[in-house]
Design goal:
The protein is about 65% helix and about 0% strand. α2 packs across α3, α3 crosses α4 and α6 packs across α10. The protein starts with 10 loop residues before the first helix and ends in a 5-residue tail after the last helix. It is an all-alpha fold.
Length: about 210
């Protein structure tokens, strides 16, 4: 956040008394998410967010001892939102079959990144190191767990676990690559092109 002129004061909507009942953490996350819509994670300031929601810096530190703790919370919120967007897209296309639903989920991943560039970058910067496809599925973040579960729906009968993992990696690599290339200004993507590229991978109907 670069200044108060670009911010939305959330404090009046909740009321100061709400902070004494556990809502300050949620208000700070909401303010942080709003800030990321206009600026990078590097520009975030706990003191600025405190002013944003109308509390002292000391109150903020009770919930987030440092900036890194806030960034992790924002990244986790981003992964929840990404998973929700993918699930909604998948449900909307489910009447066209499993492949269409899978394709729609992948397209939603790319669109989410394009709409939320700074949040998307933060999410993957904050994600734990290591092979996400080898984690137990109940330990994976929601978006990755969704990918691994939906691969089961599109994998040919009798596919081995290695085949399913390869499919998940191929699909993740495609959508993440598209998203990154777009955010880095290497390609121009519109909805139609996103659908065309992703349908080419899965072989399902265009989304």
């Amino acid at each position: 956040m670069t200044g108060d002129d670009n911010s939305v004061n959330i404090a009046p909507a909740l009321g100061r008394d709400a902070y004494h009942h556990g809502d300050l953490r949620s208000a700070l996350i909401a303010a942080g998410m709003h800030a990321l819509s206009a600026d990078s994670a590097d520009a975030l300031s706990l003191r600025a967010l405190a002013r944003e929601v109308g509390v002292s810096a000391t109150a903020v530190y009770r919930h987030f001892p440092d900036k890194d703790a806030l960034l992790v919370a924002l990244a986790l919120t981003g992964f929840d939102q990404l998973a929700a967007a993918q699930q909604a897209a998948s449900r909307a296309a489910s009447g066209q079959g499993a492949l269409a639903a899978f394709s729609a989920s992948g397209a939603a991943y790319v669109r989410f990144a394009i709409i939320n560039p700074e949040l998307f970058r933060l999410m993957w910067k904050a994600a734990p190191r290591g092979d996400q496809l080898h984690l137990p599925i109940d330990e994976a973040h929601p978006a990755m767990a969704n990918l691994r579960r939906t691969v089961e729906d599109v994998a040919p009968p009798g596919s081995s676990e290695d085949d399913k993992r390869a499919t998940a990696l191929r699909c993740w690599g495609l959508v993440h690559g598209l998203a990154t290339l777009s955010l880095d200004g290497q390609i121009d993507l519109d909805d139609a092109m996103i659908g065309r590229v992703i349908v080419g991978l899965t072989g399902g109907p265009q989304t």
